[in-house]
Request: fold
Amino acid sequence: MAKDEMNPAFKLIGTRVLRPDGLDKVTGRARYGADFAAPGMLFGAAVRSPHAHARIKRIDATRALALDGVKAVVTRADFPTGLTGEDWNLQENCMAGDVALYDGHAVAAVAATSALLAQDAAKLIEVEYEPLPHVTDVDDAIKPDAPAIRPGAADHSVPDGMPPNVVRYFEFGHGDLDAGFAEADIVRAQTYRTEATHQGYIEPQACVGQLGADGKGEMWVTTQGQWYVRWMCAAVLGLETAQLRVTPSEIGGGFGGKTTVFIEPLSLALSRKAGGKPVKLVMSRSDVLRATGPTASASMDVKIGMKADGTMTAGRAEFRMQGGAFPGSPLNEALECAFAAYKLPAVEHIGHEVLANRPKAAAYRAPGAPMAAFAVESLVDEIARELGLDPIAVRLKNAVREGDRSSYGPRYKSIGLVETLEAAKAHANYAAPLGPNQGRGVATGYWFNHNGDTSVSMAIAEDGTAQVSVGTPDIGGSRASLGLMVAETLGIPYEHVRVNVVETGALGINEPSHGSRATFASGKAAVIATEQAIAEMCRRAAAEWGIEPEAVDWVEGAAQPAGPNAGKFPPMKIAEIAGQMSSTGGPIAGHYEGLPEGVGASFGTHVVDVEVDPETGRTTILRYLVVQDAGRAIHPAYVEGQFQGGAAQGIGWALNEAYIYGEDGRLQNAGFLDYRIPVACDLPMIDTVIVEVPNPGHPYGVRGVGETGITPPLPAVANAIAAATGARLRRLPMNPPAVLAAIKAVRGG
Amino acid sequence: MSKIHVTATVNGDSVEFLADPRETLLDALRDHLGLIGSKEGCGTGDCGACSVLLDGRLVSACLVLGVEAEGHEIETIEGMAGPDGTLHPLQRKFIEHAALQCGFCTPGFLVASKALLAKTPDPTEEEVRYWLAGNLCRCTGYDKIIRAVMDAAAEMRGAA
Reply:
């Protein structure tokens, strides 16, 4: 339970109110991406490359267009040329140009009067390919004989002599690394590998797009960020950005994967070619897995020096990541998070960004941080075990605190790492007895959290209720948390506030709901906007009373004189002020546009107990504890939900999930049967402790809680398996065959 | 391909629609009858987001053809609350326990849970977890869903 559920300073913050979208979602009324229809709508389908790497020699749509009811076919020839940088990357990923770069890469799209007809027509579009040599593995892609995927794609950061698929290279760090390692009693270095995984949102990408010959367009789409959809579509299609209006639907999960575009520009291109009729595109699950952004795969060398008492003296991380055939893997974030929990006098980071014939990586919950944690937190555990030290004690000994310099440069402001470690140590799970073949693993994780472009408006209605317009789609209960903060600030019941996620025409630009920012950034903006409305209501009351506005306070939903000297008037309630607003000066509203300062980073510590079947190598999660610093939990149930959901995704990544490419470069498990995410019987209840070290940069102390929780599970589970079996797995996923082989290697040797 | 006329009962109402023989029951519900509460998450029977009851039996609507509905009774999420909108205890408990985040899988979980409680009014946690193993949720880690189902079951037993 959040401490502040007991905090008398707040009436609403920290309470578990019902979410405002709950009724629509339990009755099936809520409208998601595929639930939208427009009059006269056509249906689209994409043609996708079956090859990992192939030159497109010819596309012939004659037979498709001959079908009755087929209205338009688009290829790259229907898109503008001359794009550069990320605009080009987006365009190329949405629709292949001369070369298909991965299995699933779109090469054409068709619109017809029904979805079945569109699928039939897609099969009739003839594409002639000349297959090219391909590479899908990150370590293979940097071998000297690897096929060059995009010669010349390397940027200026890459030193001469690097393999052609290395397109970005960087180093950063501080301190004397050699001196640090020399000071250590024990220095260990290991290599760790993680496979690509998918966000696995249950709702496939879906949109309805409409674009006229006048360059004006509309889109209804499932997305984490309607303004991102707008600028990306405008860039890919060469449109004026403000002429597009993008309305977000309810979103069926995103986890970062819906912060970019895939099919959205195709629906607009098809619409324009079909005379401006709206075109609906819905991805199949197979296409989602083959062609929307998974996360990167990583190959990571880590070296750590430690004294016998557990003091870490130096750390070095050299990571290679592939994020598909495009730059954009979360290499910086991974390296910046790698040693973030540790106060290290000397640290070095080296990054190699590598291209491979895979789909363009998209953000996935704390992008990069889970891989980095797997490598570093596994090695910390290995060394602690070798030295016979308690894993929490080692982390406490080296834990960063407020004022410490982080491994990636900036000094930490208020942070709660130590508090999460202490809470984990004190939790009953950390003392629970373990039986045969059982083991306990501990790991910490970190995420920066983020502010980003934020625009919010709020307004008072005629009856004294309030509306809030935000640009951050609600993926985990943010309308509830925003409603709580606005109601608390106004001093009115939570039920009197309606929070609306609005379309691009209604506000200035907003970044998506990413970076754990919705409750922090839109929340801070909404509180500032609300304070403006309160100030205006105080001015209206002051005018009515004939006193100075500064002499009016806002208390519990009413204006009242600030003190005896201000005059003696009964409090003027919000409903009264609102009811008169048309005759006292017009609408009462507030707004915020900016980059909310004061982001508060979040640390977490996880403790997991596993049992490993020595006969099959199967790992069962017995207990799972998430301890994380939320700053303040505005709605504790949805904070717990973020912790639990992040842990479940991390457990899936640790034990089961992986992109499996065949020798032919094709994805072999493009469906939920073979890309198996955790199901209900794979998991126990997931215990949570919400630590609250309030973020001074937010009016209610919010840090943001969405991402940190996926970071520790990968190493925590690996550490638990090592404790249970004596076998250390340094490669994910740790599925039964892998665990069994590791056990046999230990026992056989 | 010519369409086939289908008559069925959906949520107690007699309905008719014209189905392409290749269309699924899920397509028919969503595209012909406007019942968009059943969701397509995979189209291959792996995710459970399209769970409906066919003559009282839990099925994935994406694995049933629309024409197969002829003469049968189908219950979807839209038929779960009472005619006056009174929520089923499972629906209410899902909201109270914060057992949904994005909500996309929620209709399928609710329909599947109702089918469980119809035959097993007093399930263990393990029984709930195994019964719902055919419904994927990516947001919650299942914890609050399991608690909501167990709590709804307890309330329904008490009310019975």
